[in-house]
Amino acid sequence: MNGARAVLQTLVDAGVDTCFMNPGTSEMHFVAALDDVPAMRSTLALFEGVATGAADGYARMARRPAATLLHLGPGLGNGVANLHNARRAASPVVNIVGDHAQTHHRYDAPLESDIETVARNVSRFVRRATQPATVGIDVADTIAASQGPPGQVATLVLPADVSWSEGAAPAIAPPPRAATVPAPHTIAEITAALRSGTPCALLVGGSGCAGRALTLASAVAESTGARLLAETFPARLERGAGRPPVERLAYLAELAVSQLDGLAHLVLVGARSPVSFFAYPGKPSDLVPAGCHVHHLGDETTDVEAALDILAGELGVTEQSCRHQQHEVPGLPDGALTAQSLAVVLGALLPEGAIVSDEGNTLGLFAPGATACSPPHDWLCLAGGAIGQGLPVAVGAATACPDRPVIAFEADGSALYTLQSWWTMARSGLDVTTVVLRNGSYAVLNMELQRVGAHAGGPAAKRMLDLTDPDLDFVALAAGMGVPGEKVDTADGFAVALRRALAAPGPRVIEAIVPSLV
Amino acid sequence: MNGARAVLQTLVDAGVDTCFMNPGTSEMHFVAALDDVPAMRSTLALFEGVATGAADGYARMARRPAATLLHLGPGLGNGVANLHNARRAASPVVNIVGDHAQTHHRYDAPLESDIETVARNVSRFVRRATQPATVGIDVADTIAASQGPPGQVATLVLPADVSWSEGAAPAIAPPPRAATVPAPHTIAEITAALRSGTPCALLVGGSGCAGRALTLASAVAESTGARLLAETFPARLERGAGRPPVERLAYLAELAVSQLDGLAHLVLVGARSPVSFFAYPGKPSDLVPAGCHVHHLGDETTDVEAALDILAGELGVTEQSCRHQQHEVPGLPDGALTAQSLAVVLGALLPEGAIVSDEGNTLGLFAPGATACSPPHDWLCLAGGAIGQGLPVAVGAATACPDRPVIAFEADGSALYTLQSWWTMARSGLDVTTVVLRNGSYAVLNMELQRVGAHAGGPAAKRMLDLTDPDLDFVALAAGMGVPGEKVDTADGFAVALRRALAAPGPRVIEAIVPSLV
């Protein structure tokens, strides 16, 4: 068989049976081989950032990697922003970048560029396939590398001649490396801290934000009187009724500082030590209060559930001590649509098992609070801070979980980076409701303009943060991509539209016109 | 003054008075300083690829750099594909990438990444500003580097604290390096070749495709009996009635080989030696016929006009020998809209001084031929082969030349990468008519699927090259971005729409429904 077919067969044999792609000429043998390996489910994206963000969303929900297929350095470049988010989410992604045939490099043809430089920005593992005889092994190693731990973007550069040449064979991916568990002295130190009678908090992140790990973290916190916090932007937080309530650290450093104020011990459970998103003149980047001891129960390479099991055993804590969020559905508001009333409607109507891809930015501020007591659901955040993630992640989540409703909660400015996602949703019939939060501005930057200490900004500055003149029409944009949509500007109108969208199969867009908070 | 203001002042003092931007928090002081340096004209893009492609288009027309302003590694990533095209076009671009404050790096905040790795893909010159006292010099050096020769993407990484700190001062950009001229023995060798009586051709590229250089190249060719060819995708080709007729090398290697067949001497005039765009199994990448001697009159670092002056002097040739294309306007066709009839309408209606940003791909095949005798105009090609260039380059060209009509001749698949360009056209009132050539497929890939020797492709493969299911509606997409549009599917309908669009100020979109050629 040729190299391309061996690549595909190695992928599906390892369970990597989903590929989000935007191919070009150098990937035509890969594309041609799709019909020979029907177990591979391929999804076309009209822009690479959709493909890479979808692979991230898929990994967050399926807990295993999808593949991407990208075209040379420029195609990888277009995908880098969402690969950055995937890297920060510790999502496993098998990132396949087609390249010129190896004999072609020395001619420096127009599309020639140094692919590896770009790949290194997002991938600690970068491999270049060189011959069909070994390409199966290259793919197998890439899959294993992607799974870590920690999960990562592993990049395989695949020259066209390796794809088209015969003499290849599939290979079996080696098992992922074992996750670590904390040393006994770490457990002892954390146990002592939690029993010290001083103010303590557990800060969960990564795999600590879901499943039994989260249950155990809640039980430990509840039993010891510690507070349970989550990192600011978890890749996936399981929450809602019946699950442990968790308070997320605020994006605004000022607020996060007050959340952490007075702590004597902060125990990191799959999370990093909290730092401010950006630096501000004269303000510290490190958010840990002076005198607070930071303890590392586990990081991205740790089996966080096992670590919590050991800690709980040492403390004599069982899962039964876990807190459970009550189910409580707010009444539907009416009147003007505001960030608050919109969040209440979302909380009232959020269906059980929903997946929320949250890139609501400033207008999304109230949504986590308003949905805390909704039926159990998953909340996917902007892990790496590179906007344009929300819609692609929704594509990937819906592909991984075709039976669950997905809601993309999307700020207008961010939506515009990867709008092509809507077309892929329509083609694949993905059940994604996009709520575009339209305030006609990069509102977060209006706020940041002041926070960084820049003077308020004159008309030239303000125009760079303004998304009116002309107004954007997201219903028209959705229609252009083959997705039905409607506009709402009242709370009851939003409720009607959201009910309708959730009841209908396939994608829908609701353009919610909401005044800015800032 | 603070660093940001010194950056802006240094730019405008050097004539870099246009900045295409998509800023974030780390660039807020730069944005705030716009009101203090009113000579800087700033243009907001809703996606970084629009900003970088616009800077390329601006440089091609203005013959001087614009600046970009991008946000950290992910923002640069989003801009890389069009920076790749700018690099291949040898366009000078002052690429400013904001970064975290220097004190913030060690905290590895969510948006932290290795910006330089990405920058190296497109920039030989990468500088990191470190303090306000020297940031003016950093900017001045970046401007000088961008101007080459050759023109290039020069990247300055600008930490937020350098922007916000006081103690900065503007600096004066050093003059660009002098361009080279060929050595006497090169002139002698080329003179001998052109006088040898064997089949010769001049292949113009880069700055050889415009102005007096092109006139001289035509005169030399005409006087010596050599053929005059141009590279496949010139960054800017001046053509039309009254200008020298030039035959461009074909994209398809098979056709280019037949164009070059039988040549004994090929003289490169600002062009590279011709190679195939991609490699194909069993076919050579080098398109120069066996036995043909390749001579280098000049490359991207050469003063091509001076080199041609010397050569013409040696040959005793004057500008008067230059050929001039006759003005000849075809009659308007009617009937079905096809790639051919669409090209004829374009040829009939192309206004004098038009700038055509050509990303028509397969459906654009007949446009150069049909416009060869139209009034004089400029033709901007996909220099680096990374699709998604056409609309942003049109933004930049229209910004540089506000009094000239711009036509973006745009394939449907390519348009979808950087559709956000339309919003910037609307905001800036740019007189750009976009003709979207809609055939509902990545037609070039359908062709390449067969050319690379991949079997014809089954349904799974073909679905990855198909842009229907759902159909895209470009008139709706344009409306969503604030640009009026209409759909046409007949030749006379297209003529009416094109006339209307050219007569109206500001941007318009014509969705031309045209059957695929392949």
Structure description:
The structure is a homodimer. In chain A, helix 13 links the parallel strand 13 and strand 14. Chain A has three domains: about 160 residues, Rossmann fold; about 140 residues, 3-Layer(aba) Sandwich (Rossmann fold); about 180 residues, Thiamin diphosphate (ThDP)-binding fold, Pyr/PP domains (Rossmann fold), CATH 3.40.50. Helices cover about 35% and strands about 15% of the residues of chain A. In chain A, helix 8 packs across helix 11, helix 12 runs parallel beside helix 20 and helix 14 runs parallel beside helix 16. The model of chain A has no long low-confidence stretch (mean pLDDT about 95). The longest helix of chain A is centred in the N-terminal third of the chain and has 17 residues. Chain A has about 525 residues and is α/β, with parallel strands linked by helices. Chain A contains 20 helices and 18 strands. In chain A, the strands form three sheets. In chain A, strands 9-14-13-15-16-18-17 form a seven-stranded mixed beta sheet, with helices on both faces. A six-stranded parallel beta sheet of chain A has the order 2-1-3-4-6-5, sandwiched between helices. The N and C termini of chain A lie far apart (about 60 Å). Chains A and B meet through helix 2, helix 4, helix 5, helix 7 and helix 16 of A and helix 2, helix 4, helix 5, helix 7 and helix 16 of B.
